[in-house]
Each structure stands twice: as structure tokens, then as C-alpha cells.
């Protein structure tokens, strides 16, 4: 399993926890918006690893935008939900695409 896929799944779980309406907002406020800073760094590392592994990286980009705008009350909830879903789709789509690329590479005889 690729490091980028693991990071995307961890980031997706964190984003979906922050998307829980009252609990997520309380956690962000209780940490003094530190949770958003941590998530920004996690998405940045995930983006670098995804680019290195040559898998699609739209999930971490959505996560970076979410971390930057997550302090807005209702917009933050919607963005956390959207980035959590995007990261999940990205994690599974990237793995599937990688397997297809390997299968194509094995069929070539030159």
C-alpha cells in the first residue's frame, strides 16, 4: 500500500470527523483553530506524497482549501464534508488506476 493512499485515508477520516456538525466545530474552537493548521500540514504532506507516487491529488488540494476556509461556520462544515469525500474517492481511485497501469505495463512486450 502506498504512503500517499494511507495518508489520504487518514486525512479523510479526520476531515469526516471535523464534518460532524457540533462536535467538529467544538473541536476546532477548543484547539484554538490548531486543528485547521494541523490539517493544512497533513494535506500538504499528502499532496507531496501523492505527486511523488504519481497518483491523482485532487483530494489534498480540496483539503488545503478546506483548511484555509474551515473557520467560517457553515461553509467549514460543508467543506470538511466535501474534502472528506474527495479524499476517500481519491484514495481508492488512485489505487485502482495504479493497478490498471501495472496491468498495461505487463502486457507490453518490447
Blueprint (SSEs and pairs):
Layout: H1 3-18, H2 21-30, H3 34-53, H4 58-69, H5 73-107
Helix pairs in contact: 1-3, 1-5, 3-4, 4-5
What does this structure look like?
With 110 residues, this protein is mostly helical. Helix content is 85%, strand content 0%. It contains 5 helices and no strands. The chain starts with a helix and ends with a helix. The relative contact order is 0.19. The model has no long low-confidence stretch (mean pLDDT 88).
Comma- or semicolon-separated keywords:
110 residues, mainly alpha, 5 helices
**How many E-type strands?**
0
| Structure annotation, total helices | 5
Overall geometry: elongated
From N to C, what is the helix and strand string? Answer: HHHHH
Residue-averaged pLDDT: 88
Radius of gyration based on Cα positions: 16 Å
- Uncertain segments are none
Percent in strands: under 5%
Straight-line N-to-C gap: 28 Å
Largest sheet: none
The helical percent reads over 70%
Secondary-structure class: mainly alpha
Short description:
This protein has 110 residues and is mainly α. The protein has helices spanning 3-18, 21-30, 34-53, 58-69, 73-107. 85% of the residues lie in helices and 0% in strands.
